[in-house]
Automatic annotation (TrEMBL):
<dbReference type="Pfam" id="PF03795">
    <property type="entry name" value="YCII"/>
</dbReference>
<dbReference type="InterPro" id="IPR011008">
    <property type="entry name" value="Dimeric_a/b-barrel"/>
</dbReference>
<comment type="similarity">
    <text>Belongs to the YciI family.</text>
</comment>
<feature type="domain" description="PhnB-like">
    <location>
        <begin position="145"/>
        <end position="274"/>
    </location>
</feature>
<dbReference type="InterPro" id="IPR029068">
    <property type="entry name" value="Glyas_Bleomycin-R_OHBP_Dase"/>
</dbReference>
<dbReference type="InterPro" id="IPR005545">
    <property type="entry name" value="YCII"/>
</dbReference>
<dbReference type="InterPro" id="IPR028973">
    <property type="entry name" value="PhnB-like"/>
</dbReference>
<feature type="domain" description="YCII-related">
    <location>
        <begin position="1"/>
        <end position="112"/>
    </location>
</feature>
<protein>
    <submittedName>
        <fullName>YciI family protein</fullName>
    </submittedName>
</protein>
<dbReference type="Pfam" id="PF06983">
    <property type="entry name" value="3-dmu-9_3-mt"/>
</dbReference>
Amino acid sequence: MKVMVIVKASEGSEAGELPTAELMAAMGEFNNALVDAGIMTSGDGLKPSKEGVRVRFKGEERIVTKGPFAETNELIAGYWVWEVTSMEEALEWVKRCPNPMNEESDIEVRPFYEMADFADIDPSGEILEDEEQLRQKIAMQTAHVCNYLFFAGRTEEALEYYQQHLYAKVGLLMRFNESPDPIPDGAIPENFSDKVMHCEFSIGDMKIFASDGCGDDASLAGFSLSITIDSEQEAHRAFNALADGGTVRMPLQETFWSPLYGQVVDKFGVAWMVMLPSNAAN
């Protein structure tokens, strides 16, 4: 079951008093324990009500009132959302929580409604189906899509080239022989133990994943990476660097959508579209 754990506001929180460093550390440990237990899904603290507003609905009228609000016992200063097996489990976790305030305080636990609670008014299940589609849509709106390139044993060479010519920044890099779990027999060629199992690098604001894969027969086809560069001079430089040892599919030239656009496949088999924005500087 999902519950909201509500930290009630106090005179101190409404006055904008910040927690002590010791309390911040204690709450950090508690949050880590919640995450490690797989219970905490979200949580945040709220600024005093003087930073907020209320909207009262009265027929067609909307009445806006700016904070602060006087009823401290009706306000909240923060919350968690937990996934627990029962209210009893939630209560045990709340008892372990450090006092969230520098004074006496209250924490309230409230279960969320579940669609099963509305079974009597949704006998056909149509509302439940719509709700499930809505949840799926929300989940996909926060998903992150990233290109994953397989260089068939040439990842390090490609990284060095992109660092030199496109000023790529390499983050995480792990080799097969650094894997915390043993690589199954026959999964990779014998000479691949020091090859790149996974790496992450960025060019501009584009993040890319890469690997040597599980052999030297991988091919890169059916897609292109698009890179937009504000400078005509730099666009030519980058295009020429990518074309060195590669294949030009379309030379850099003016098009109706860009003052300069071209297509090239670099020597590692990665297809690129290089372009200028319409307001680019020379």
